[in-house]
Amino acid sequence: MTAIPLLNGKRIVLGVCGSIAAYKAADLVSKLTQAGALVDVIMTAAAQRFVSPLTFQALSGRPVHSELWAASPGAAGSHIAHIALAEGADLLLIAPITAHTLAKLAQGFADDLLAITALAAACPLLIAPAMDGGMYQNPAVKANLNLVQRRGVQLIKPEIGRFASGLTGEGRLPETATLLGHIRRQLGKGGALAGRKLLITAGATRESLDPVRYLSNRSSGKQGYAIAQAALDAGADVLLLSTTNALPPPVGAQLLAVESAEAMRLAVLRHAAAVSAVVMAAAVADYRPRHIARQKIKKAAEQLTLPLERTADILLALQAQRAESGKPKVVVGFAAESEHLLENARGKLQRKGLDLLVANDITAADAGFAVDTNRVILLDKGGGSQHIALTSKAAVAAHIIERIARLLA
Ligand code: CTP
Known about the structure:
The protein has 409 residues and is of the alpha/beta class.
């Protein structure tokens, strides 16, 4: 886990209630802290029967709060614990929230530090219920959920699966990555791309050969997914056209699964006019089998020759559509090159009518396909170039999103 710029220095108050899922909150505190957030944990009395306050204190590096009648947690000028905690918080998340604390929230009860902090907090409030058995389906719980949502509380829906009791159903606390995604979505609101929608393509297209085989390439989709996450962090709405199901989609992205270059072309052209920017991070096949065999191709001759035909170039098609409609405002392409990087990349930028091109040397082992790091050059149509030294794909994505935000400003 690395630093997440969006979370750096953010003050997050995490309420933890008495559920077996409280142990998952410990992992969340760890990840948030590593990402750069300042996490103040408030535990209910019941939560302390499941996890020790020391666990959260060690992971957050900050005192853990539970006593309503304790002295101030140290904020200058304030002397009431719940006011100090609520004051200046960027976000209050209660994860897990139990049916009991939810009921208190719905009714405005103020009998412990967490309930009072929730009443006093002016920041966004997110709740992630965790309830065993059929509790989550109980009409009283549903009514309380509806009530608090109508007041602006945001619900992180529990997942369906196996409970600690051995029963299965809806009520499991989502994994840390999902909780983190919801936090990012909330904190990203009002960012540089707020109110904008981006279409991002990701992954390697697959061109069917027969019912069991396809032609594809080594792209993992990681850079495209990182760009989608960076766009969400900047407050954008994201339509992610993806060929892969091997990566978890970023929370908040609208995922549209596509497989072939042709399916991707149709989807890009259909949605392009409704977005501010298109980012073509996908590795699109240039050729596909001329025929898709209806039955599995059987092993027979010593050699097999497959006739291939060209696919349509999506960016060229988009360029033609954009010439008529003027939309989208910004188009970003990639160039995967194994030689003459700059020369080939410049050619692509011009030929495809791009505003920005991300040039990738795919021969380096630590950059490009499948790995988590990348080293790119951002070329713009004005002739400028920005070298981004070896860094995480997330950091490369943040640079690309920053450039898009500037182009859209
Ligand atoms: N691309 C596209 N449609 C295709 C092939 C590629 O829109 N049929 C897009 C890619 O998503 C990428 C850019 O074009 O943003 C450049 O892709 P790349 O594979 O580097 O180049 P090609 O145009 O395919 O040219 P070449 O294979 O000759 O390098």
